[in-house]
Amino acid sequence: MESLFPVVVFLAIATLGAALARRLGLLAPIVLVVLGLALSFVPGFPQVELDPELVLIGILPPLLYVAALETSVPAFKNNIRPILLLAVGLVLFTAFVVGLVLHLLLPQLPFAICLALGAVVAPPDAVAATAVARRVGLPRRVVTILEGESLVNDATALVLLRVATLATVGSAVGTADVAIEVLRSTGGGILIGALGAVVFGFLHRRITDPLLDNALSLIIPFAVVFTAEHLHASGVVAVVVTGLVLGHKLPQLLSAASRLQVGAFWRLVRFLLEGLVFLLVGLQLREVLRDLDEPAGSLILITFAVLAAVFLTRFVWLFPATYLARLVPRVRRRDARPSPKVPIIIGWAGMRGVVTLAAALALPLTLADGEPYPRALLIWLAFAVIVFTLVGQGATLPLVARRLKLPQDDPVQDALSAAGVQQQASRAAQERLDELADSAPDAVVDRLRRAVEDRTNMAWERLGGTERETPSQAYGRLRQEMIDAERDVFRAARDSGRIPEEVLVQAYRDLDLEESLLREAGK
């Protein structure tokens, strides 16, 4: 009872914070981090000592899995070069620059532990990137690159952190050891992820009950990450690979009812976990400050230097990576030279999050031979990077995006493409109906033909302006009023005892499904 109470309190505060953010038109991650920072100093407020294993094994896998499920595999493949340049190249570059800066300021610290901190602060957070980038309304390709980077970069950073930690505690780490570690972590993660996609894809295809599909979907990320970690492979890579493959094949694996239920379930899980994660990050401030004993002047200098290194290395890497690659004719032909606004906005979107804090808390307690080192300082630096990038860059990202005036995706072109494909789909549906028309009454066939025509017309209507109400919008408005009237009748019949509760539930379910379709069609 006592251990459950703080969890309920944190979830309630996270929900209220997200609601407040929407009311104020702010980004929920920033509001929740600031709220957590304030609450960490409230006397008597429950405090949580964040367990790195809980974050890396319990919270990160489901968030990565649902992000991978929703990632377009064709878009991921089309942008694989910039994604890998950021997720691998930039992470390594940032880690070594931050490690070098820290080692220059604190030469008594071994370079290995400085590099470990660099690996901790190098990767932008998957949760933050997805939560902020989509809300800001960045161009589709920019969002794809940021999401792709955030799916892969944790694996790079955690492998580097593992190697640096081994060197820190006195293990001999040579080139061959590093190569073996990378191969085992990355290659093993890919193999386990692919195997997980095959196994769980087979199970999804055999399951017809939406509830069982939902339960299996929840089990998948944990089963994959536990298997990978047990075999000393990268659980992050394994979960991402499984999510990408299953997400790409999901329309063939799940029934319509299962897809609706699984989608609604993961939206709820992501909402709660994201809110909880950002709140917990803020709540760690008091714990982080508790063991800090550095002189104020030295602390400010080191903190500023690390923040500057983290911020500037992203831009120093991005511009050459963006434009030097286009000196290669093959790359230039396939991918036009982008405006400088694109690397600027991608550079500004490098928010860190809970993975950075969890990795910092997982730093070794001592150096080789039990020698102590200022571990609390390194945890503070990681925490400062999180707060600076989330609150500073995250809060100003919408303003930067507006000032840059990035070319937005053309909604008319999207609607035109959708209408063209819908017309092809309608033609295929009409041909199938013509083949089966003899097996049903003419009235049923005519009704189905009208339904296909209405769907086609609705797709073309989206190409029109928004000044006038379209026939589909008028239909939706009037049908909504009719549904409300039907609900009132069923509720009154239940209250008067003319129908049992089960009849009311079924009727409401049918009306709710139709209303949800109307709302989706009206978007």
Automatic annotation (TrEMBL):
Q: Where in the cell is it found?
A: Cell membrane
Q: Where is the Cation/H+ exchanger transmembrane domain?
A: 12-401
Broad class of where this protein is predominantly found: membrane
GO MF annotations for this entry? potassium:proton antiporter activity; sodium:proton antiporter activity
Taxonomically, the superkingdom here is Bacteria
Signal peptide location in the record?
Answer: none
Q: Which residues cross the membrane?
A: 54-76, 83-104, 110-133, 189-207, 219-247, 268-285, 297-321, 342-365, 377-400
Provide the topology term for how it sits in the membrane.
Multi-pass membrane protein
The UniProt keywords, alphabetically, are: Antiport, Cell membrane, Ion transport, Membrane, Sodium, Sodium transport, Transmembrane, Transmembrane helix, Transport
Which GO annotations describe the biological process of this protein?
regulation of intracellular pH; sodium ion import across plasma membrane
GO cellular-component term (any): plasma membrane
Stored NCBIfam families? a_cpa1
Function field: Na(+)/H(+) antiporter that extrudes sodium in exchange for external protons.
Which family does this protein fall into? Belongs to the monovalent cation:proton antiporter 1 (CPA1) transporter (TC 2.A.36) family.
Name this polypeptide is given: CPA1 family monovalent cation:H+ antiporter
> Lineage, please?
Bacteria, Bacillati, Actinomycetota, Actinomycetes, Micromonosporales
